[in-house]
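Field: COMPLEX_INPUT
Field: COMPONENT_COUNT = four
Field: RESIDUE_TOTAL = 1384
Field: MODE = joint
Values follow.
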Amino acid sequence: MPDPLRIAVLGVGMMGRFHAETLSSRVHGARVSVIYDFDHERAAEVAAEVGARVEADPFAAINADDVDAVLIASPGSVHEEQVLACLDRGIPVLCEKPLTTGIRTARAVVETEAKLGKKIVQLGFMRRFDPEYVAAKQLIDSGAIGRPLLLHCVHRNKNNGDHFNSEMMIRDSVVHEVDVARFLLGEEIRAVQVHRPAATAAAPAGVSDPMIVIFETEAGRLVTVEIFVRTGIGYEVRTEVVGENGSTVFGLDHHGITRTAGPGGAIWSGLIPEGFIERFADAYTIELQRWVDAARTGGISPDGADAWDGYAAVAVCEAGVEAIRTGDRVEVDLGSRPVPVDRPTE
Amino acid sequence: MPDPLRIAVLGVGMMGRFHAETLSSRVHGARVSVIYDFDHERAAEVAAEVGARVEADPFAAINADDVDAVLIASPGSVHEEQVLACLDRGIPVLCEKPLTTGIRTARAVVETEAKLGKKIVQLGFMRRFDPEYVAAKQLIDSGAIGRPLLLHCVHRNKNNGDHFNSEMMIRDSVVHEVDVARFLLGEEIRAVQVHRPAATAAAPAGVSDPMIVIFETEAGRLVTVEIFVRTGIGYEVRTEVVGENGSTVFGLDHHGITRTAGPGGAIWSGLIPEGFIERFADAYTIELQRWVDAARTGGISPDGADAWDGYAAVAVCEAGVEAIRTGDRVEVDLGSRPVPVDRPTE
Amino acid sequence: MPDPLRIAVLGVGMMGRFHAETLSSRVHGARVSVIYDFDHERAAEVAAEVGARVEADPFAAINADDVDAVLIASPGSVHEEQVLACLDRGIPVLCEKPLTTGIRTARAVVETEAKLGKKIVQLGFMRRFDPEYVAAKQLIDSGAIGRPLLLHCVHRNKNNGDHFNSEMMIRDSVVHEVDVARFLLGEEIRAVQVHRPAATAAAPAGVSDPMIVIFETEAGRLVTVEIFVRTGIGYEVRTEVVGENGSTVFGLDHHGITRTAGPGGAIWSGLIPEGFIERFADAYTIELQRWVDAARTGGISPDGADAWDGYAAVAVCEAGVEAIRTGDRVEVDLGSRPVPVDRPTE
Amino acid sequence: MPDPLRIAVLGVGMMGRFHAETLSSRVHGARVSVIYDFDHERAAEVAAEVGARVEADPFAAINADDVDAVLIASPGSVHEEQVLACLDRGIPVLCEKPLTTGIRTARAVVETEAKLGKKIVQLGFMRRFDPEYVAAKQLIDSGAIGRPLLLHCVHRNKNNGDHFNSEMMIRDSVVHEVDVARFLLGEEIRAVQVHRPAATAAAPAGVSDPMIVIFETEAGRLVTVEIFVRTGIGYEVRTEVVGENGSTVFGLDHHGITRTAGPGGAIWSGLIPEGFIERFADAYTIELQRWVDAARTGGISPDGADAWDGYAAVAVCEAGVEAIRTGDRVEVDLGSRPVPVDRPTE
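Field: COMPLEX_OUTPUT
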């Protein structure tokens, strides 16, 4: 039995801390050895919890002797340099989205990794590990509903601060549907359009919440996304795939039914999860277990999102932000996919 | 086009009034011509609503020239004499349950009708006309779930007055499951046992609410019935049929889903009907339309419950009441079915 | 009790025949007295069934002494002249959609009726009488989900002939969502855009099936409609209303659950209705009963769609057809609503 | 960070092998160090998979230096001696049901452990770790549905060999409902009755499949259990709790809905899990993680089933087997619960 994978976690805000805890209590073969956070006190607190040591500098953490792999949960603005440092050292990295904050820098990461000749950058699109998405992907691939034609996505959050503007709704929320659409349909998105209805009273001035985002894929399929991040309700993520011979919908959350008397009459009811941690807890654990299993042999999980997926997500979101501004269809141009060194065209 | 069927409605308490209104506003080919009620004022009020005249005596109503058929919604204690009067005159009658209040009298009605040589007595077991029960019956008969082995019934009411004791729970509530079991399984019930758990705090002293009633059929199949008439919630009637090759459950009430924030977190929910009128409104309308269609040619609806069904229900309920007392299995003996005069054995 | 309303049914293709049968067997207070159809043999056949006489000319039928009201189920191209003839005689008319086949003619009908000073033209938008739509409208109006912001509609048919092109998908199918959106949101549609994905292999060349249609209302709310008329599955009509404080979805069809073994593993399942008759049978009966009740006193059902609703539907569909061509947002201009003569502004 | 817990797995048939794999690939802080199985070849095969060594004798395995805790998945007949050996050495043990194969021996285990003064025996009732059961328990304890009055359990298996007789249906299948009832209601079962309907054609001669089992608790609450182990469908475990102020049902399996055309018409459908591994995979992982976490400090998981729970299950099943024979109500007498040495009454 090999020793546990020693992992440096960079950034221990809510997500990083949750990942560090998962790695150190629910994932086999992993050990959090090093914690870095801009806020050193927070780093120390989490390090104590998970039995790790603290590093005061992220690059020292990446290059430390007791680090075999890196999990990046720091702010998006520093992802580029941290991922590049991991590539430089050649150790596996699991990077929360976004890969980087711009198309050119994201493409540069893709190209740098291609020169390595092997994939070591994985993106934290956890829905690819959610049992419902996996089952939907298998159903599509089985041919049971025929060729997919349409995807309808609903993505709703209970609430968000006033800083969470229309652009962030694309970059931080719809980005998941970008990856889901590419994952389920197996092709690239070539254009984006955004429809902006009258906003909810809960939205700050100037923020278009909700919005309807339409993706158009290379094969001409359409994806509709309702993004609504201040519903006041809970976390709702539902996806319907409409194929030539059938359709499938998941994310319904009907795990149990309770019947009670209510003020307006008797109801049957079930709970809606509060947030994404509740909804995707299993997906996160599976994602981390699969990544650890792969990273122990120096690679990334074959069913995870890779650097190209991260780059494509950045590019589509960029177009989405532009589409908010214009109201028109905005095209996405990814360019050709770099060929990894020493390996023939995939 | 024949003239509308002229109907006398006997008893216009809640059910009778509802029937009179249905006949005079939602059923084709029917007209309520005469109203009788022990409470003459109430009779006059309903008569005015539906454009009928009042009769002060039920037998005068049954024998009136402007009456082609009779709907009996009077108290059970007078059903026997009113049904016999209809048989005497030979006109179709739709009688709310019970057929009569005793096994011997119920059997006497069956035998009197048999001498007529044609069926003119229909029992008001409306579930036989409910689209969900009809679909379940068709599913069973199609063989899709194989031979039925078990039936699980849930019958819950929001509340009932303190007079509604354990015996009435059998005679007035479980009587519907008696008919449902006979209808869906197509055979007689040969024994009944009643289990009495600790009662709800809402039950008056000495009343066993809820109870678990077990029917055993001639072929040895089992029917479990949860009867609970003071849930404080709403009207819940669910039935599951378990067959050798599959099962089916209906009465789930999931017509729509609403998602809202609640005090204990966000919920998805749907409404539970308040009472049997809400749940079975369609069944009542269909029952009356089918009965009117049949009565216009002097008979009863072939898909309705007949006098024998009414008699069997009385006999099983009688055994059920005895089973409450003893806690043991109580057998039901229906005797042989009378052969209608002038007609070969059915 | 007044005599039954004597109704002329014009056009007895599938819909007209279904209506004639409903009126003569499931609706109280109605009688089909006259049948007209371009195909005289078909007219005779239906007339025999429902006990009516045949008229060889639609205008003779409209003006016949034994006709109190008219139901128009003839081809859309003759609706204008038939509705105008009813207006001319001043008798109530229930007209299947479309009101007429052009904006100007539809507006002319509205204006002609306005001069009468009372509403006698009702449109056959039956969903307004469907219990689920009525419940959704009540839920919205109760404020339980707050101000509606978005409507998501799915409208799928099992199949359609090759003649059923993209334009007909708007005029014959999406027209129902036009009325539903106006009914549920209580305001006019001011613009339409159509997105056309790659078509299903089942679609004839040049037909965009499915399509995503986006309505924008006067208040800036958005309605998304998936119209897909060759799914090969069944009839699926689902609607989700997303409000500021909650959401509701209906049309889920989960009336019962059957569990069986299947070739690919065990499944729980339920039936999807084959077509709109199965799905909306109750709505049609309620629509006709409500219309008959109203027509007996010379008017239309207050909860039905009126001539203005018919005109608005024509105008929005016209814009929808233009939107298919351009791919862009097309505005709808209804003009001001005519004020009925002798009545103050509504 | 402490070293991983070194675990001996005794018995690597289907369950033991699954547990060994879970411990060595999905549970943090655990390592399978020793494998024992009666079939030495099978032991060697699993040991190679999980990186453990083989022991040829179970007691040598229990007492080995590289063993900190023991998981027993061997046949029930040897549980007694293996659990006692663990108690003798004083190391934590997770024992699959049954605790032992007789009431007296089970009680002896309870008493032996009581003398130790601390709990080190945990029973493998995994449903206590299933998120749905945990949520139901929390719901009950929250008071949201009031005091529970009834529990309805459905327990169905796709198929079982002919050796699986009525007695085994109680001991191996209903035993889970025994524990669920005690877990959810928090009290002991005082009597059992078994109703035996006509059997499915798939049952071997003399085997009563399905059966209806009724438990009566100390407080007079009733539990109905449908046990049906040859449905030909899949694995269905559903539980409904009926309280004084509401009810809750779970185990519905509605994770996603697929709509397709079928031979008998279009259906919406979802998958039923094939067996208990699919249904309770998460519960097993959570159970093992929780046990490992507790065993690392020498104890058992506080939310797991303890030796007394194992003893009570044996006693109730014994009564259940007797109840099959008599058809009557059979009482259960557990005696008083032993007080652990050195600790005051719990």
